[in-house]
Amino acid sequence: MTKQHSFIILLLLSGLCLSVSTISAQENSRANKPNFKDRLIVGGGIGLQFGDVTLIDLSPTVGYRVTDKLEAGIGITYKYFKIKNYFYDYTTGIKYDLKTNIYGGSLYARYAIIENLFAHIEYERLLYNFTDIYFVSGNVTKSKAQATINSFFIGGGYRQRISGRSYFYIMGLWNLIEDPLSPYSNPVLRMGVGLGL
Q: Could you report the per-residue pLDDT of 151-164, keeping only the tens digit for each?
């Protein structure tokens, strides 16, 4: 990611934070303020895929309802990713799997546009650990490698209330930073739950 991209993302997130505090101050002065615990939301998503491509994704989140329409939060992510026969040695005919462990975190905000529809913005940073395999003159060379992947998602979704403060959601996102190492391809579809405490 270039310094220009980093500056733009920082500028957008700063603007979002200023907007959140302004909206929060306006709405809190108008209504009785619920306690902190009543505004917390825990949730996230779990993803599983098996076959030639194996993916195990655990992505818990903790959010805070700043207002009745605005939720902001953080998330952590772990992904195990494996592609069978990803590397191929043309001299020996042997195939090798690509296996990775991906860790990271994210900051997000959701704004309810109407009853069940919301807009979503998110910045995610992932640390991608993998073994790179090289073939030179019939020899196999393996080396540990690491990369950092930044993603900036925008989009929206639909949520269906399960109870007063809990909901199920589905959303479609677009990653504005199309890193070639990213585990995502546009559009990104997600499903998950948010559980009020």
A: 999 999 999 988 87
